[in-house]
Amino acid sequence: VINIDEKKQDRFKTYPTMDVLKFLALLSEQILAHEHDCEKAVIEQACRMQTAFSFITASLFMLLPVVFEHRGPLTENFIFISFSVITLFLILSLVAATCAQNRRKVEDFPNIDKLLLHFKDNYRLFETTEARQKYYIETISVIQESYHSRTEWRGKWLQWSMYLFYTSIISCLVVFVIA
Predict the structure, then answer these.
(1) What is the C-alpha separation between 98 and 90, in angstroms, rounded?
(2) By CB neighbour count within 10 A (0-12 exposed, 13-18 middle, 19+ buried), where does 20 fall?
(3) Measured in Å, how far apart are the chain's first and last C-alpha atoms?
(4) From CA 89, how far away is CA 169, in angstroms rounded?
(5) Which partner from 31, 58, 82, 134 sits 20 to 30 angstroms from 149, CA to CA?
(6) Is the Cα dihedral 169, 174, 175, 176 positive or negative?
(7) Is the pTM of the predicted complex or chain greater than 0.70?
(8) In a 3-state reduction of DSSP, which class is residue 14?
(9) Model confidence pLDDT, tens digit, residues 145-161
(10) Is the pLDDT of residue 13 over 70?
């Protein structure tokens, strides 16, 4: 059961009408749905980054034998170091994209048995419609904050994945210009 701290409960003492509470409940549900959508979008983007990693890596390793065969004045060391640096950035990009998809625990709605037990132990707190609505809003608020935190965490990993991927592309261009 999600325990709502007293400071958060106190902020509802100034809301006199049930209409305001209904509005807040609806708004809270929409914000939570938005957080779900944002998290889904970040996971999908991380998946796309992994796909891009696969294509670029496959292209790079198909290109390697051709470069060796027609290397001209390029030394083997230059080719190995260049491909190693590019591959390093690609692998780091893959790791960051994989971390962005990692599952982390978030707050969720309490299961029914725990909720019933909590209501039974604290039934006086839930006697009025307003009190139940306040509890509902606070529960969604806690869950939304948890999802927001996790989405922000995923977003940072995804940003690093993109930076590293772009660095690998720039490294490819630099190596091809030098060669």
Answers:
(1) 12
(2) middle
(3) 63
(4) 9
(5) 134
(6) positive
(7) yes
(8) coil
(9) 988 999 999 999 999 99
(10) no
